[in-house]
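Internal QA ticket QA-208
Title: Verify multi-chain structure generation after dependency bump
Assignee: T.L.

Test input:
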Amino acid sequence: MNVVNLFRIAWKALLRNKLRAFLTMLGIIIGVASVITMVAIGQGSKQSIRDQLSGMGSNMINIRPSSNVTVGGGARLGASGLQTLKVEDVDAIKEKVNFITAVSPGLQASGQAINGALNWPTTIQGVSPDYLPIIREWKIKEGLNFTEQDVKTMAKVCIIGQTIVENIFPNGQNPIGQTIRFGKIPLKVIGVLAEKGENTFGQDQDDIIVAPYTTVQKRILAVPYVQTIYASAVNEQSSDTATQEITAVLRRQHKLKASDEDDFTIRTQAELISTISSTSELLTVLLAAIAGISLVVGGIGIMNIMYVSVTERTKEIGLRMSIGARGIDILLQFLVEAILISITGGIIGVALGMAAAELINILLQWPILVSESSIILSFMVCAITGVFFGYYPAQKASKLDPIEALRYE
Amino acid sequence: MDNGQWAMSFGLRTTLYHSPFALYLSLTFTINIMANAILDIQHLKREFKMGSETVRALKGVSFDVQPGEFVTIMGSSGSGKTTLLNILGCLDQPTDGDYLLDGVNVKKLSRNELARLRNRKIGFVFQSYNLLARTSALENVELPLLYNSTISSQERKEKAMKALEAVKLADRMDHLPNQLSGGQQQRVAIARALVNEPVMILADEATGNLDTRTSYEIMSLIQELNTRQGKTIVFVTHEPDIAAFSSRTVTLKDGRVVKDSKNENVKSAKEALDSLPVNDDY
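Actual output:
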């Protein structure tokens, strides 16, 4: 019997029992649809986390004093209390490290931003002019960035985030050129940052004032050290090399002996991305595993129905054998039926899964990514399920004795 | 036999001796030297092992059937009738003795070769019709040809329509079995038996489920196939009045042939049908 006939016969046999065929398929449909949807959700959230982290500057390198250093009496100090990083370190990195495009000191201070009668608690970030455009890739919506000259003169200028604008410039007032106070220090607003929204961790990124680091260091905090050094690697791949170079430069700067531990820690954004990605990767695998189990359950459903079908159609099998069907013809007939059920179920399942993923995206605003590989994979699993669970019932059918089968009631 | 035959046997338990080629040789060989009996059984024995006991269902049966004969095989239950029918239909093989169907010795054939033989040389008609439910009459008739890879789908349809015409059901080819009467269903079954142009039609109590009138209609059709188209018919029954329509009756008892007689005056089923009182039950 040729293949076309096989499929035609199997298809007709399924059409003879439409409801049953559909119910059998349902197991596979639900299995495949849930695999597609779950993987789409997992992949979607992974992609969105990646995108957000990249938005924070995927090449960013973060250097902080290490809390592993003990001071007198053996007590360890928290990183913020450490004073090992200096502006000279920043200059040394800028000069000697090849794989970075920009480097900036970082100093943070908390306080009230005041405009007339209005005030708002916020954070001021003291950095170099390269910080916004190069390290953070953050655009200034209105006004201008500060300059190296402003850094040198400890200029009382600042760039403010959208949240600050909303809270202390309420009536659509143009903040550019206005003077606000941060604590006691008056600062002239020279620019407004483009809106960035919340980051992955729910922090409002727009609740910030950016000023020259010298202004924050000398005028607000009055400290000789810097809290953080930000740098930007040439690209994501070179951030490891850059890290090694920075380590070497800083160790020399701090005159550490070979046996000494680093008195600073370097974190790269790439590292963070891979950590968080691997978490959502695990989530995807777990979701897919749960969905995969339902696919197996669907397969068992097929096996069950095929066994019932073989018993129920014993007489038909006997007849087919008596008019010349060989064992293999019967085997193939039932096998193809099982495969047709699973593949048809698979097609419906893929369509349904994609639709469900799209619906979740529209209704819940969850990020969704339907990957081709999940479609191909679940489709292949379907076909294999059909063959695997269909084989034993089909083999049982093909081994029937035609005489007994014909007499079966 | 063609290349398709080889492909069909691919991967199956076919030894060199049982190969289609050997079959082909023996076929041509026997046809050339033998009197062309359609069916030739010699000292046929069939034993069944039931636990420690051996039941001897056939104890040495011999007879032959010539082309164009209409033979009824009669016998009460337990006479070995069903066992003989299974062997004649190549569904079972004898324990001892020889069975030559159209010159082919069935004894040496494998399961798959038997299937092929059934497909090409035998047309079955059963008591309970055995039509596939929810499948049109035409498709039911096409069924045997689906297992013959040398026949194209076009040819298959033509042959099936021709067979349905032969049983005067051409106008019902799209009907499903449950839309047909018992007699019509049996006629579809006969068409299915005819469609592969078998050397022999093997009927098993083919009128057993039908009333007298419909039985006579079926018998009239079978007689017509026998006389007009020269089909060889072997008809198993236990009803003597059905046997009266055949040209020869072989009677079995306790696994042996007790009577094998030519029927001198064959009754015409058509006349019997006409002589039946007109049905006025409803």
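Spot checks passed. Chain B has ten helices and ten strands.
Status: verified.
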